C-alpha cells in the first residue's frame, strides 16, 4: 500500500481514462479506475479516495448520480470531486458545482491542468 494520495478516476471513454490515470500516476498519485458509475461507487466504498475524477455522462450511473450518492455518506465528507464533461453550457457546469463538485472540467481538457487541479485540491 502506497503513501501517495488515492485518486479514483471514472470515465467510460477508455482513452481518456488511460490518459488521466497515466498523468496522475506520473505526478505521484495512486490511481484506481472505473468505466461506469456503479464501478466507481464500489471502488470508492472499497478504498476511500482523496479525490474522485468523474465523467458526467457514464453508463449505469452518471457522474452526478455518483457524486450525489457520495455526498450523502459521512465517510466521504472530505472527498474532493472533479467532474469531467463534454456538456459545457454554463447551466451544466453550475449543476455540477451545485451538486457538490469542487471543480468542473469541460472536455476536451489538458491533462496537465487536471493534474494541477488535483494537486490544488489536496494542498489548498
What is the fold's blueprint, element by element?
Layout: E1 6-10, H1 14-26, E2 30-34, H2 37-46, E3 51-55, H3 63-71, E4 80-85, H4 90-98, E5 103-106, H5 111-122
Parallel strand pairs: 1-2, 1-3, 3-4, 4-5
Helix pairs in contact: 1-5, 2-3
Characterise the protein shown here.
- There is one protein chain.
- The chain is α/β, with parallel strands linked by helices and 124 residues long.
- The chain has a single domain, classed as Response regulator (Rossmann fold).
- It has five helices and five strands, in the order E-H-E-H-E-H-E-H-E-H.
- The chain has a five-stranded parallel beta sheet with strand order 2-1-3-4-5, sandwiched between helices.
- Strand 3, helix 3 and strand 4 form a beta-alpha-beta unit.
- Helix 1 packs across helix 5 and helix 2 packs parallel to helix 3.
- The longest helix is centred in the first third of the chain and has 13 residues.
Q: What is the gyration radius calculated from CA atoms?
A: 13 Å
Order of helices and strands: EHEHEHEHEH
- Which strand order do you get reading across the main beta sheet? 2-1-3-4-5
**CATH topology, what is it called?**
Rossmann fold
CATH classification, class level: Alpha Beta
* Tally of structural domains: 1
CATH architecture: 3-Layer(aba) Sandwich
Principal-axes shape call: globular
Q: Strand percentage, roughly?
A: 15-25%
Work out the number of β strands: 5
Q: Alpha-carbon distance between the termini?
A: 25 Å
